[in-house]
Amino acid sequence: MTKPHERVSHAERESAAKMLADATGAGYLTTDEFDGRIAAAYSAVTRADLDRVAAELPPEWVRGWEKSRRRAERVVEKQAAARRHLAAYVAGSGLMITIWLVVGLATGAWYPWPLWPILGWGFGVWHHTKPLREARALRADGGPPPLSRGML
Q1: Are the C-beta atoms of 16 and 54 separated by less than 8 Å?
Q2: pLDDT in tens, 16-25
Q3: pLDDT, tens digit, for every residue of 13-47?
Q4: Nearest-angstrom CA–CA distance, 117 and 1
Q5: In whole angstroms, what is the distance from residue 123 CA to residue 129 CA?
Q6: Which residues contact 32 (CB under 8 A, 6 or more apart)?
Q7: pLDDT of res. 129
Q8: In angstroms, rounded to a whole number, what is the distance separating the alpha carbons of residues 67 and 13?
Q9: CA separation (Å) from 106 to 17, 100, 103, 109?
Q10: Which of 28, 48, 50, 46 is nearest to 37 (CA)?
Q11: Around Cβ 131, how many Cβ atoms within 10 Å?
Q12: Is this model's pTM higher than 0.70 or not?
C-alpha cells in the first residue's frame, strides 16, 4: 500500500509525465491542462503530489496504462536477459573452441568435442532469445519501435 507522504523518484516523475502525454494524446487532457500538470509532475515531491496530476483521469484508463507500462518493462527485462544469455553462450563457445585448439595442437587429438556442448547450449539460447527475434520481426513489419529504459 502506498503512502501519500512517501517521496517519489525521478523515474516515477518521468513515468507520470509519460502517462500525461499519453492521456493528452488520447484526448483526456487539453494542451493547457497538460502544460500545468506536466510542471506539477516534474516538481512532485510526494506520492500525493503525483496523485494530483492524475486527478480527473478515468481510473480504468490509468490502470490500463499502468498495466501496459509494466508489460513493456517485463519485455525489456526479458530482452536484456536473453542478450546476457547470448553473450555468455558466445564467450563460452569461444573458450571451448580455444581449449580444443590448444589440446589439439599439444596432443594431436582432434576429436571435435566442443560441438556437443555448443549444440546443446545453443538449443537453450535459441529458445531464450525468442523475445529478441520477435521484436526484430515486429520492427521489420513496421510494428512498434524497440523499447528502451528511457521510453518507460
Answers
A1: yes
A2: 999 999 999 9
A3: 998 999 999 999 999 999 999 999 999 999 999 98
A4: 48
A5: 10
A6: none
A7: 87
A8: 17
A9: 63, 10, 5, 8
A10: 50
A11: 18
A12: no
Query: Looking at the DSSP assignment, which residues form a beta bridge with residue 79?
Result: none
Can you say how many angstroms the Cα of residue 10 is from the centroid of all Cα atoms in its chain? 18
Contact 128, 82 (CB under 8 A): yes
- 83-133 pLDDT, tens digit each: 899 999 999 999 999 999 999 999 999 999 999 999 999 999 999 888 778
* Contact (Cβ atoms closer than 8 angstroms) between residue 42 and residue 17: yes
What is the C-alpha separation between 150 and 38, in angstroms, rounded?
Answer: 17
Q: CB of 138 within 8 A of CB of 62? A: no
Average pLDDT score over residue span 56-66: 88
User: Going by C-beta distance under 8 Å and a sequence separation of 6 or more, which residues neighbour residue 81?
Assistant: 128
Helical spans, DSSP H, in 4-129: 10-25, 31-42, 47-53, 59-107, 115-128
Distance from C-alpha of 74 to C-alpha of 76, rounded to nearest angstrom = 5
